[in-house]
Every structure is written in C-alpha cells, then in structure tokens.
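This part of the workshop introduces the protein records we will be handling. A learned vocabulary of local backbone shapes supplies the integers on the structure line. Getting from the letters to the tokens is the skill we practise here. As an example, a complete record with its sequence and its structure tokens follows.
=====
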Amino acid sequence: MPFCNSTISVINLGDAFQIPELESAALAPYEFTRYRDAYHVPMASGEAWLFQYGIVVFWAVSDDDQQLLIKRVTPYILLESTKRSRELFQFSLNAEQLSVRGDHISLPGEDHLLRLAVSHALAQSTQLIVFETMVLDNIKATAHIPATLAEKGKIPLRRKELAKIRGRLFAAKSDIILHYGLLDTPEFFWEHPNLESTYMQLARYLDIKPRVDVLSQKLGTIHELLEILADEQNHSHSAFLEWIVILLIGFEVVMAAFH
C-alpha cells in the first residue's frame, strides 16, 4: 500500500466501541478486516487500526480522512473521551531491521501485520496515558486529605462529602482495574508468535511495563486513601451514635428527676 506521508497518529476516542454497531454501521463503507480486538481499515491515504477499547492508530492517513473516520465511529463509543489523548510518531518501511529512535519507527518490510504489532504497543501506551492521568487527577484532588488528617487529627468533612469522595476514588480505581487486562500482551500474538518480538521491542521503548508498575503503586495509594476515608466515616458515625446515646441517657435522667 502506498502511503502519502510517514506519520502515525494514536488517538484515544473513548472507553470502548459498541462492536456490532461498529461493524454493521460505522465501518460498513470500508473493506475492514478483524484481528481479534483490532480492526484493519484501509483508507485512501493510508490505513487505520481500531482497537475495541477505544483507541485508533492512523498510519499515513490525511487529517481529512482521519476526521471522517472519527466522525463515523464516534456515535458507537460507549463513553466518549472528554479530553482526547493524541500521540504522534514517524515511520519508514523496508529498513534492514526494526529500530526505534527519537519517536521514529523503522520497519523491516511492508507487511500490514507488522504494523499491527507496532500498533498494539502504541495503543496500549496511549491507554496507559489515560489511566495515568485519571489516577494523577484523583490523587491531586484528594492530596489535602492526608495533610489535613496529619495536621488536625481528623478530616473536617460531613459524612455525605466523605461518601462522595470515596465514591469518586472507588469508581476511578474500579474502572482501571476492570480494564487492566488491556495492558497484558495481546492475544493476537498467540496466533502470530513471530511478531511478538516486534511488539515487545516497542513496549520496551515505550516503557509500558515500568509505567504499569508505577500505576499499580498509585492505585495502592488510592486504596490506602479509601481505607482512611472509610475509617473516618466509621469514626464519625460511631461518634454520632455515642452522642445520641448520651442524649438519651440525659433525657432519661431528667425525666426520672421530675418523677
């Protein structure tokens, strides 16, 4: 396939695609091919790889063609991204061997499955950016809680406010854990083990495993914060019940005094 340029664009469109509708409606005008969780979409100016978890990788596709495909598939995204993450790379074909230097990917051939192997790593890296941003935003938004607890010995928030914060943290953590399997080696390579080394080389270049490890540590931080908030909620509830008991005892004492 002749390519009109040498740019790879990786874009996060949302949480996931509605697969039946994606195939029957959005991709109907294209001669697409499915490879497990990825779709190969040949286009006039290049090709696109759509991944079921909401990532699209464009190889040498013009801006107009990119926008056209994005417009077609957007209605079939389960949860559209409010802030799209976009990564850009350059590539060349028919190199002596696979190499990655300064965001330039040189491929030893023109096989489209070779580009799929690379696309898997690029898509995972962009998905990681989504997770990393989600975790970082939540940690920043709640950074004052441990500091306040250390300074004052308690968290001066109502139980309802604490419950809302716990809910947001738990939702973020659950969403990431639910999709954590996306960061494993794709099942595609079970059928094409000869391409796994290409994927692994890109994964190493993109630091996917170290970033996953850091993400796990940050999820651990969120888990600890959830436990702190749960303890604070339980303490507040216990204190509330204690005051009710004290008031009831006081009421009984007063009533007994008047009798």
Remarks:
- Strands lie at 7-12, 33-35, 38-43, 46-51, 55-59, 86-92, 99-101, 104-106.
- The mean pLDDT is 85.
